[in-house]
Amino acid sequence: MRICFFIDNIAHTGGTERVTTIIANQLVKFGIEVTILSLWGDGISSFKLDPLVELHSIYKNKDKFKYKIPSTVISIRRFVKANHFDWLITVESILSFFTIPACSFINIKQIVWEHFNFNTNLGLRARSLARRLAARFADHIVVLTTRDKELWTSNLSCNAEIIAIPNPLPYAIQEVKQGRSKNVLAVGRLTYQKGFDLLINAWSKVKDSYPDWHLNIVGNGEDLPLLQKLIESLCLNDNIHLYPGTKRIDEFYSDSSIFCLSSRFEGLPMVLLESQAFGLPVVSFDCETGPSEVIKNGYNGILCKPEDIIELSEGLNKLIGDPLLRIEMSSNAFVNAQLFAAENITKQWIQLLQYEIKEE
After folding, report:
1. What is the pTM of this model?
2. Cβ atoms of residues 4 and 36 within 8 Å
3. Three-state DSSP class for 68?
4. Which pLDDT does position 11 carry in this prediction?
5. What are the E-state strand segments in the chain?
6. What angle separates helix 224-233 from helix 196-203, to the nearest 10 degrees?
């Protein structure tokens, strides 16, 4: 079997690129021939790839693709036909504008792999239009959560089969013991979406009860000056620390006792999966898609009403003040992490691809 992932640029360092490389690496282990075609870039992956995975790109430099739609469609069509792929997996629905017409009247099956929740288009009307196109002409749409599956089927007329397959863990499950530090960790881009302003305000209600605990926020983004100013205005400089994004994020997970997700909206947050691999109990806003797929309230974490600063602070206070509860939820996080292990998620992809694993 030959499959091709079509992605914006595999050299990017985001969660989408990471999970694409994870699934690609897993699939070649089963004898599937895998190619990754980037819309643009140097054909180099930022994440480690199996040498058997082929990398190609259409353009070297990012340009005004809206003026190159016809030539891009033709390039994809030629590439697909020349390589005789069985499946084309379009990573992100907005790229369907290229792949759906490129594969018309070609004997190839198409999967569109959506990484955003249905109610989010990031201000791009084109994304909403591309979803309609994919729903009508793709064979399958892979979404990250069962809630998103419901949103697709209830809001669009879908000829495509909508299937929920969560992202895989990016780390092997770690052997880390609870009670190692007095640190709460939050990770993500410093943007409105991630709600770090809400978290900082919530922490101002935690500090007085637990002044020896610290909140570490790791990430880069345009909201850095705003967040720094908010921390100063609340006199939290000694209790909240902002760190730039790092490839050594595992060191922060290992040195934390609680993870906090304060996002206003999500798809399926990779940071929640990462925190599970390190056995961290989680306090999280229960935004519409994502957290409830990973966190079972009272089992491996605490879910709070979306954007409710008081509930978030109460959840943090509860976990900080109860070491035995943290230990219990940590053990449950390790158990829950098994559900998202790369090999288990890959089995769902193999089933979707209708690939028959050869017994040795």
Report:
1. 0.86
2. yes
3. coil
4. 92
5. 2-7, 33-40, 54-59, 87-91, 109-113, 140-143, 161-164, 183-187, 214-218, 240-243, 258-261, 282-285, 301-304
6. 10
Encoded amino acid at 107, one letter:
N
Residue 54 has a CB neighbour count (10 Å cut-off) of 16
**Rounded Cα gap, residues 119 and 114, in angstroms:** 12
Q: Tell me: the pLDDT tens digits for 57-87? A: 999 888 766 668 899 999 999 999 999 999 9
Name the segment(s) of the chain with CATH classification 3.40.50.2000.
2-168+342-352, 183-340
Q: Give per-residue pLDDT as tens, 246-282.
A: 888 989 999 999 999 999 988 888 899 899 999 999 9
Q: What letter represents residue 357's amino acid?
A: I
**Domain 2-168+342-352 fold:** Rossmann fold (3.40.50)
Residues of the chain with pLDDT under 50: 360
Pick 183-340's CATH classification: 1.10.1060.10, 3.40.50.2000, 3.30.70.2190, 3.40.50.720: 3.40.50.2000
CA angle 276, 323, 196 (to 5 degrees): 55
